[in-house]
Design goal:
By secondary structure, the protein is of the alpha+beta class. Helix content is 14%, strand content 29%. Strands 1, 2, 3, 4, 5, 6, 7 and 8 form an eight-stranded antiparallel sheet that branches. It is globular.
Length: 196
């Protein structure tokens, strides 16, 4: 997987329905180029957040300073801080003004493992990028990436020749509203999924 052979996904990929984009992101590769280092991981677990009928979505009560990137163009990064310590990385989907996104919950580490180990302070490969906070720390993603256009470096998503395996659909994790919506998707049998 070399940068010269893999171009970032185009905006039209992200403009489909949020559930369709969420499922399509599985198997794609998230890449971050920073400080002369490159880290990359295959997306193995995601959650969709919808603007209508989904009280767990940050955009459910309208646009604010915090969630403004969600209302921007499809293919924009939406990064936010939870519990004052963990960043979460989302991909904005749908139409401008709609307020929908896909949370990236887990990656299968592919490139830059030593950099990821250093950032995490851990050498546990299975947990390295498992869970949204862990993957952001390992990949070096923070609020400086909020609103970034994912068609361009330093943070972007590419497709490679990976054949997507069976996709499992479940309810989402760690939320207190809209808990019964089947909007979490992950690659079956993948050891890097945060929770089966």
């Amino acid at each position: 997987m070399k940068r010269t052979h893999c171009q970032p996904l185009e905006q039209n990929f992200y403009s489909a329905s949020t559930v369709e984009v969420a499922r399509s992101l599985l198997g794609k590769v998230l890449v971050h180029e920073t400080e002369g280092e490159v880290t990359a991981g295959r997306i193995v677990e995601v959650e969709a957040y919808l603007s209508h009928g989904d009280e767990a979505c940050h955009a459910a009560r309208g646009q604010t300073a915090r969630n403004a990137p969600m209302f921007g163009p499809a293919g924009t990064a939406y990064v936010y801080l939870i519990y004052g310590i963990h960043y979460c990385f989302n991909v904005v989907t749908g139409k401008v003004g709609e307020g929908e996104a896909v949370l990236i919950r887990a990656l299968e580490p592919l490139l830059g493992l030593q950099t990821m180990f250093r950032r995490r302070g851990s050498d546990n490969l299975k947990k390295l990028t498992s869970g949204p906070g862990n993957l952001c720390r390992a990949m070096g993603i923070n609020l400086t990436h909020n609103g970034h256009d994912l068609r361009y470096p330093p943070l972007y998503i590419i497709a490679d020749n990976f054949q997507t395996a069976e996709i499992v659909t479940t309810t989402r994790i760690g939320i207190s509203s809209a808990v019964n919506l089947p909007l979490r998707f992950y690659l079956a049998h993948n050891p890097y999924v945060s929770r089966k």
